[in-house]
Amino acid sequence: MLKLLHALMLGLFGAAAVHIAILFLLPTYSERDVWAAMAEEADPYALVRLGKGNANPLLAEEQNPFFETAACRFDLENGMVRLTAAERVPFWSFSVYDRDGFNVFNANDRSATNSELDALVVNAAQLLELRKGVPETLASSLIAQTTIGEGMVVIRAFVPDESWRIIVERFFEGLRCEAL
Q1: Residue 45 vs residues 69, 107, 179: alpha-carbon distances, Å
Q2: Which stretches within the chain are classed as H helix?
């Protein structure tokens, strides 16, 4: 009887361990993730607005009502990525994620020169090349060094009240995500 109880308990704990492992590995092996949804929605370096206006349910997830969000995919094999916006908003932030959705870099308007969005996402080799001679147009750019190849940048802008919505919309209309 004791051997049967021991075998039963071992089987239950083994099954629980396998189920927990599967749950943790599911995002890694899933083909229906945000990366795939972004790939269906737009080409790399194209900005996609996230939130309630998006038809894809993975990209239409309800966001904080005080923030508007956009994202673009990139591949550092094609060169550095430059993010720029012509309009100023009360607060902006950008986050760099790897292909699996792990956050690898964050910055906001408090980190930037004059609170303007002008940032570069680079790998170590690109940063070394950049340091040899920074072009004047990139001298005040915020630099986000990362070890990833492919990734996604998510840009958020704060909308304190409805009177700011037009300015935030102009911020996103003038937002650029491009390979250099």
Answers
A1: 15, 19, 7
A2: 2-29, 34-41, 124-132, 165-173
- The two tokens of residue 154 are 């998510």
Sign of CA dihedral 143, 144, 148, 151: negative
Q: What is the pLDDT of residues 10-27, one digit of tens each?
A: 888 888 887 887 777 666
- Sequence-ordered list of residues with C-beta below 8 angstroms from that of 85, at least 6 positions apart, any chain: 92, 116, 117, 118, 155, 171, 172, 174, 175, 176
Q: What is the pLDDT of residues 54-109, one digit of tens each?
A: 666 666 666 678 889 999 999 999 899 999 998 889 999 999 999 888 899 999 98
Contacts 24+ apart (CB under 8 A), 33-41: 33/58, 33/101, 34/58, 34/59, 34/101, 34/152, 35/73, 35/99, 35/100, 35/101, 35/152, 38/71, 38/73, 38/152, 39/73
The two structure tokens encoding residue 32: 């229906």
pTM of the model: 0.76
CB 81 within 8 A of CB 179: yes
